[in-house]
Amino acid sequence: MELSERKLKILQAIISDYIKTAEPVGSRTLSKQEGLSYSPATIRNEMADLEEMGYLTHPHTSAGRVPSDKAYRLYVNELMAKSELSKEEKAIIANRLHDTTVDFDETIKHAASLLSEITNLTSFAMTPKKNEDVIKYINLLPVDEETVVMMIVSESGKVSNRALKMSVPYTEDKLDLLSKTMTYNYKGKTVSQALTNNIIANFETDVVAMSGMAEDVMPNFMKTLEEMLNVNLYMDGLSNIFDIPEYSDVAKARSFIEMMTQKEEMTKKLIERDDGILITIGDENKDSELSDVSLITASYSVDGKLVGKIGVIGPTRMRYSKITSIMEYLTDNLSGSFKLESGDADEDQASEDPEETQNDESREDS
Amino acid sequence: MELSERKLKILQAIISDYIKTAEPVGSRTLSKQEGLSYSPATIRNEMADLEEMGYLTHPHTSAGRVPSDKAYRLYVNELMAKSELSKEEKAIIANRLHDTTVDFDETIKHAASLLSEITNLTSFAMTPKKNEDVIKYINLLPVDEETVVMMIVSESGKVSNRALKMSVPYTEDKLDLLSKTMTYNYKGKTVSQALTNNIIANFETDVVAMSGMAEDVMPNFMKTLEEMLNVNLYMDGLSNIFDIPEYSDVAKARSFIEMMTQKEEMTKKLIERDDGILITIGDENKDSELSDVSLITASYSVDGKLVGKIGVIGPTRMRYSKITSIMEYLTDNLSGSFKLESGDADEDQASEDPEETQNDESREDS
DNA sequence: ATTAGCACTCGCACCGTTGGAGTGCTAATC
DNA sequence: GATTAGCACTCCAACGGTGCGAGTGCTAAT
Question: Mean pLDDT score of chain A, rounded to an integer?
C-alpha cells in the first residue's frame, strides 16, 4: 500500500495531537480539526489502513489510535517541521550557559541542568574524551620530606595532579631533573599514546641514577594519565521521568533509575552512539529500559577533536523538533565556548544567521 | 499509664516481627511466639493499652498493629540489642574499602556504594569540610605565553589547581616571586581564614611592582579557595527506595528522588545534623519527604578535625542495630585510613577489642 | 488477672452492571 | 468510485454489591 498524501496528513495530525494530549486520538476529534475536512468515517478508513501498515496502534477496540515507533520515525525523518528558536530563547540559553564559571566540567554540568530545565526531561551531559589531548608539561613539586606533587598539564589547558609519597629521600634538584626528563619524553604525545607506548621501559634505564625515585613516580604518572581519560557524566531532571505514563509502574521506574545511576555503563552506551544529533525511538533503543522512551543525543567538539555528548530522555511523544533545536543550539554554543577557552579562538561561535523554517506544517509548540 | 515489663516485651516482639515481615502483626501470631506465653486476648488488651499510649497504630479496625515512630524511638533508645559485626563481615568491609585506590574522594565514594550494597538501602557519603585545612604552599607555574597554572597545596595533602589567563605578559622570575609572596602571606592560615581575612588588601599594595599580575591571579586564588571548601556528596542505591512500600506511590517516590538529587540542599541538611551517630525516625525528620523513613547519619574525622558524614535512608522498620554497627565500623575505618594517609599516623585504626554484646534480646538479623 | 468465645468491623478481591467513547461495516449519496 | 451517514458492536472504566478472612473489642467464665 502507498502512503498517499491524505494518509500522511492524517498521520501527521494524529501524531501532533497525541504529542499534545497524550490521549489516543479518535476519528471524530480529528475530523473537527482545521485542515482535515473529511468525515469521521473517511478518516476511520484511512486510519485502518495506516494501522495495517504499522504506523498506528490500538490500545483496544474502542479506543482511539496511537502512533507507533515507526510513525515517530517517519515523523522525525520527513514530516517534522524544523523549529527555530526565538532570539529570546537563544539569549536565555547563552546567558545561562556562560553564567559565571569558566571551568570545563562546571560548564558541562550546567549544560545538563539547563537542558533538563528547558525541556522538562531527564538530561545528561558528558565531558569530552581526552584520548587525543596532548601532554605539554610534567612537573614534580616538593611538599614535605616524603611527599611530592605531580602535575600534568595538557594542551587543552587541563591540569591533573596527584600527591604521592616517596619511599626514598629526594632533593629538589633530582626532582627537577626527573620532571624535565619526563617532560622531554612525553611532551607532544597524546594521553593515550603515553599510556600505551612503551616509553617507560627505556626511560627507566635512563634515570637509574635517580636511585629509585622513578619507581615511586611512574606508577602514579600512569594512574594520573588514566584519570585524565575518565569522562564525567552529569545528569539532571531524573525525576522528570515520572511524567511519562509508562513509568507510573514502579517496577519500570525502578529499573530506569537503576540504569541511569550506573554511570559507567551509561557513559559507555553514550560513547558508542554516533556523533551528531541522533534520535532513537522506543524499540530502536537496545536497552529494554528505554523501549518506551526516546533518546536524543548530540555531540559537541573542542577544537574539532575531543568529543563529548549531551542528551535527553523523554516519552516517545516528545516535541522532537523543539528539542533537537535546543540541543543543536546548545552544542554549538558549547563547542564555541571551548574553542574560546583554548586560547586561539576565532570569535564566530554559534553562527547566528536565521535560516528560516522551511517546512510550515505541524506546529508542535504548546 | 506505666510501661510494664510485659508491655515492653510485647512491644519489642511487635517491632521485631514488623521489621522482619512488614505486615501488621496480630495478637494470634504474637501469642504463638517463643517467650510470649500469653493468650491472644491478653495480648490484645495490652496492645490496646500500647495503642492508647501512642506506641502502636492501627491501619484499620480489622488489621494487626504497626509500631509508631514513638515505638521505634523507644526501641532505638532502650530496647535495641547492640549487634556486633562478625570478623568476616568486618574483613569484607575493610577489604572493599581499601580496595585499590588511595584517593580521598574516591574512597568516600566507595564507602557510599559499599554501604548501600551491604544494607540494601539508599546511602550517601560526604567528603569532609575543609574549612580548617591549612594552606601549606602556593605555586604558580608557566604553561604558555599567556597561561599559568596556580596550585594550592594544603597540610592534609589536598592539591587544588586552576589554569588562568594572564592579561599582562609575565616572566618566570616574577611568577616565582609572586608565588613566594603569596605563600609567605597565606602559609599556615586555614582556607576559611584566607577567604575571610582581608589580607588581600594590604597584600596587593605590596606587589604593585608586579604590574598587574596580581589582579589576574588573586580572583582566581579566591575562587580556588572556594572550590577547596566545596564538599562532594556521593550517593548510591537510589533505586532501593522503591523497596519501601510507601514509595510505591509514584508521587512520593518522585518527590523523594527530587529531594535526593538536589545535592547542594542535601549537603546542607547533612552538615546541619549533629555529629556522631544520629538516628531520626519518621516524623522526627524535618523534611516531609522523609516523614515515612528513617535517616541515620554518622560522622568520620580526619586528624580529629575535618568532619564528613555518611548516611543511609531506609524504611522506619529497618534493622537499626545491624545498620548502626555497620556504620560505626565504617566510620572508624574511614577516620583511621585518613589518619594514615596524612603521614604522621599512629597505626591503631579502628580499635579491634570485641566489646561484647550486652543486651541479648531481639536478634534482628534475618 | 487471665482467657475463651463470639459478634462485629473492615479491607480486599471478585463479580455484574452501566455508560460512553470509538470502532467497523453496510448502505446510501455525491 | 470515493465519501459519508447510520447503526450495531466492542471494550474500558467506574460503580456498587457480595463474600471471605483476618483481627479486633467486649463480655462472661475461669
Answer: 84
A135-229 — its CATH code? 3.30.390.60
Distance between B103 CA and the closest CA of chain A, angstroms: 9
Q: Which of A146, A157, A236 sits opposite B163 (nearest CB)?
A: A157
pLDDT greater than 70 at residue A41: yes
Question: Residue B69 pLDDT > 60, yes or no?
Answer: yes
- CB nearest to B157's CB, from A147, A159, A255: A147
Contact A157 B136 (CB under 8 A): no
Q: What mean pLDDT do residues B105-133 have?
A: 91
Interface mutation vs chain B, best among A239, A243, A246, A255, most B CBs within 10 Å = A239
pLDDT tens digits, one per residue of A335-360: 877 654 433 333 344 444 444 434 43
B281 touches strand D (CB under 7 A): no
Contacts 24+ apart (CB under 8 A), A17-26: A18/A66, A18/A67, A18/A317, A19/A317, A19/A318, A19/A319, A19/A364, A20/A364, A20/A366, A22/A245, A22/A315, A22/A317, A23/A64, A24/A59, A24/A63, A24/A64, A24/A65, A24/A66, A25/A64, A25/A65, A25/A66, A26/A63, A26/A64, A26/A65
Closest partner residue to B157 among A163, A255, A258, by Cβ? A163
CATH class as words, domain A87-128+232-354: alpha beta
Nearest residue on chain A to B165, judged by CA atoms? Answer: A343
pLDDT over threshold 80, residue A363: no
3-state secondary structure of B308: strand
| Residue ranges covered by each domain of chain A | 5-79, 87-128+232-354, 135-229
Chain segment A288-325, per-residue pLDDT in tens: 999 999 999 999 988 777 789 999 999 999 999 999 99
Average pLDDT score over residue span A1-23: 90
Cβ contacts (< 8 Å) between A257 and chain B: which residues? 238-239, 257
Q: Tell me which residues have their CB below 7 A from strand C.
A: A 24, 26-29, 40-41, 44, 47-48, 51, 58, 61-65; B 37-39, 41-42, 45, 59-63
pLDDT score of B298: 97
Q: What is the largest CA-CA distance in chain A?
A: 92
* CATH number corresponding to B5-79: 1.10.10.10
pLDDT at B346 over 70: no
The grid coordinates listed for A68 are 507507533
